[in-house]
Specification:
The chain is α+β, with helices and mostly antiparallel strands. The radius of gyration is 29 Å and the shape is globular.
Length: 766
């Protein structure tokens, strides 16, 4: 390949890469004057600034202030607003609280199914400002509804607005609404606006108990300008250790819906840095586009039955936005590709365009490349942790310089690929080298058909590879023409899969860099007709190697913590009221100036016996240290009932906090089975037995309306019952019993764990 042609090929590839990312979300410039009936980003940002000044998790004064602000804004729009106050329990999350949902309704002109607009207004305990998660959803709905009402065209369907509460605690507001509110009975479709980071494109993730074809057809009929979706995404979403409010509607009420959520800048997720300033304006504009197109469409379409009898494979595709086809095509497409592959092999060998020996040898560099890219990408993350051990304390697994590390890893993989192929195949025929990756891609599609049909669009690049192989066998084009043509044919491959190389380590953490490495190797293999270089022509290898070093140096230079990229850390005080002992604990693997004010000398590695609290990632204390017993008051415990009737023991206990608490955790020493288990007179698990293997079986988050917590249940009289409670308050740094030095401005509370907390542990006298 001549250098000029090679350069042109590279420019085409870079252009496609830019195109594949830019197509996923809108760009934002300074907002000009907009019509009253249009969505105003400035209006939305005005609301966002007002509701993300302070943390506003359940039970705080600010939580009530935000609630009143949202109610006031909805009433300004002329909507009658209700605050539903209802205790809810989510057995899956072991969570309960008294939720306070904000509900409004726009009356439609017909009596069909309702459209529900959904997001939540609580922030994550205890330090998140909640600008993205889910302040962005709140302001999207507030401003979107304002613009919708300004058109003065009543919708055909009722539009219900649910700004739910306690989503962060276990989807409890959604559960309260579905279980106890009359408006939940007539919902046909849910549109949920969420965030799992502070930037990036907003992905559409549909939820349905049935098939997806009708939902996808209707979604595309709404004509979103920047649809970002694939049938693989929902499968990935289900792998994550979290759900959304929409999950409750699907699981408990069989209601279909769409999640619209952005996941970029994942390092801000649930942190004190989830602020108004750090929210990506393009991400908010993307949510606005989804809202405008989908509400205008679904408010006036038939929502009576969006279930269907077939599934669609769908994926972002050049020029058509979303390409889709039925699941019933998957096997025929694999068979067709397999037959085409065999036919081309026959003619290739017959015409001497493919050699048996050459194509067998071609498996060596491809398989070596796959293994090396996967292993080295995984090792690269391990190296990063060795160089920067504090990264282990970023529980999201995605660092502030994570995008630089992804770029470095991709460039390193490209360098490896050039090196491997140059070592094994400098004199090999290009056609021979294309056989192995095409065959492996075919095998992947067989696996996909068996195990993960949502990823069936993986067959599309195979047809591109077969097309390239066919041209090479049956046509005698000039090398320069051939090279450019093959790059053009590879455009769908790059367009579809390049964003995935970025998406996986962003959404799942940098520990999943090996997935990106495998994708790079797979893509390179199918594009070997473009990248195969002779001995004298390997400048792309040199450039990729040089850029690997450059980006790694830049990433290392930006590896530290700063005012804009704060270091997460933790301190917790644990008091055992039964043994009269007390400890400090920290989740940090690397101690800093803040944690060393306690853990300076004579501390112990490991956790504290019987003092663990429930956390998202099952994070344990890394260090603990015995300290002074402060004698904080435990709750007043009243045993209202403890009696045996017909071999069953009936218990009712009331806990009245003696200090300001945020949550109470209930732990059983061993496995127990609770019958007719109630929390604040709300039946758990629909009255079915509540079984636990031991450990945490309930976390009650105290809301503004909670003065006491009541548990009642029955069990077999012979069953051993030993329950310990952890009473938790987030006031370690403000409590007068302590004189701790606050964090520096380059630090913030570690998310996803009980932090800045005073924990009082006590056994229930049962």
């Amino acid at each position: 390949m001549k250098k000029g042609t090679s350069l042109l090929s590279v420019f085409i590839i870079l252009g496609v890469l830019f195109w594949s990312f830019s197509d996923l979300q809108p760009s934002v410039s300074k907002e000009k004057q907009v019509a009253p009936t249009d969505f105003s980003l400035d209006n939305a940002l005005y609301h966002l600034k007002n509701i993300s000044q302070k943390t506003h998790h359940v039970g705080t004064k600010e939580h009530k202030n935000i609630q009143q602000y949202i109610v006031g804004e909805l009433e300004k729009l002329g909507l009658e607003t209700e605050v539903q106050i209802q205790t809810a329990v989510n057995r899956k999350w072991f969570a309960a609280t008294t939720a306070e949902n904000i509900i409004a309704k726009i009356k439609g002109t017909t009596n069909g199914k309702s459209l529900l607009l959904l997001t939540h207004y609580d922030s994550n305990p205890h330090s998140s400002l909640g600008a993205s998660d889910a302040g962005s959803g709140v302001v999207t709905i507030l401003e979107g509804i304002r613009a919708f009402l300004a058109k003065n065209k009543p919708p055909k369907n009722d539009i219900i607005i649910l700004i739910s509460d306690a989503e962060e605690l276990g989807l409890l507001g959604a559960k309260a609404f579905v279980e106890a509110h009359k408006l939940a009975k007539n919902i046909g479709l849910v549109l949920n606006f969420e965030a799992r980071g502070s930037g990036g494109p907003s992905y559409m993730l549909l939820e349905t108990n049935g098939k997806n074809s009708k939902l996808m057809t209707e979604f595309m009929a709404s004509k979103p300008n920047f649809p970002a979706a694939s049938s693989l995404m929902y499968s990935i979403y289900k792998m994550l250790p979290n759900d959304t409010d929409l999950t409750v509607f699907r699981e408990e009420a069989n209601i279909n819906g769409f999640n619209f959520a952005f996941i970029g800048d994942h390092f801000d997720y649930h942190t004190a840095q989830d602020s108004y300033e750090r929210l990506d304006r393009e991400s908010l504009a993307h949510q606005a586009d989804y809202f405008t197109t989908s509400v205008n469409y679904f408010a006036n379409s038939n929502l009576e039955n969006l279930n269907s009898e077939k599934d669609l494979v769908y994926v972002n595709f050049p020029f058509v936005k979303i390409l889709s086809y039925p699941f019933s095509w998957i096997l025929p497409m694999i068979i067709l590709a397999g037959l085409g592959f065999l036919i081309l092999l026959f003619f290739g060998i017959f015409c001497k365009k493919i050699t048996i020996k050459g194509m067998l040898k071609g498996f060596v560099p491809f398989l070596v490349s796959l293994i090396l890219c996967g292993v080295i990408s995984y090792g690269f993350w391990k190296l990063i942790l060795i160089l920067h051990p504090s990264y282990a304390d970023i529980l999201q697994g995605f660092t502030y310089n994570g995008y630089l590390y992804i770029t470095t890893a991709v460039l390193l993989n490209i360098w490896i690929l050039f090196k491997v192929y140059r070592y094994f195949t400098a004199s090999a025929k290009t056609n021979d080298l294309l056989v192995a990756p095409t065959f492996i891609w075919l095998l992947i599609n067989v696996f996909v058909f068996k195990e993960l049909q949502g990823a069936a669009f993986f067959i599309l690049p195979v047809f591109g590879a077969l097309f390239i192989l066919g041209i090479s066998i049956f046509m005698n084009l000039k090398k320069n023409t051939e090279s450019i043509l093959f790059v053009v044919i590879s455009i769908p491959l790059l367009y579809i899969f390049a964003p995935m190389i970025k998406m996986f380590p962003v959404g799942l953490g940098l520990s999943k860099l090996y997935i990106s490495g495998l994708f790079v190797a797979l893509i390179f293999g199918l594009m070997i007709t473009t990248f195969h270089q002779k001995e004298s022509n390997h400048w792309l290898q040199k450039i990729s190697g040089f850029l690997t070093i450059v980006f790694f140096v830049i990433a290392t230079y930006n590896a530290g913590f700063s005012l804009d990229n704060k270091k997460p850390n933790s301190l917790v005080y644990i008091q055992n009221s039964d043994t009269k002992t007390a400890y400090f604990g920290t989740y940090n693997t690397v101690l800093d100036s803040y944690t060393k004010q306690i853990f300076n000398t004579e501390y112990t590695a490991g956790s504290i016996p019987d003092a663990e609290t429930k956390s998202k990632y099952n994070t344990r204390f890394q260090y603990h240290k015995e300290t002074d017993f402060k004698a904080f008051k435990a709750s007043n415990i009243r045993i209202e009932l403890d009696t045996v009737i017909n071999n069953k023991r009936f218990v009712e206990v009331v806990l009245s906090p003696q200090r300001a608490l945020n949550k109470i955790e209930f732990h059983s020493k061993g496995a127990i089975r609770l019958d007719q288990f109630k929390v604040n007179d709300v039946l758990v698990n629909n009255g079915k037995p509540h079984k636990t293997r031991g450990g945490t079986f309930l976390i009650y988050h105290l809301g503004n309306e909670d003065k006491a917590v009541t548990l009642s249940f029955s069990l077999k009289k012979e069953e051993e019952l030993e329950i310990t409670i952890n009473e938790i308050s987030y006031d370690l740094l403000t409590n007068k019993a302590f004189s701790l030095t606050p964090r520096s401005e380059e630090m913030m509370p570690m998310p996803f764990v009980t932090n800045d907390a005073i924990i009082v542990t006590k056994k229930l006298p049962l």
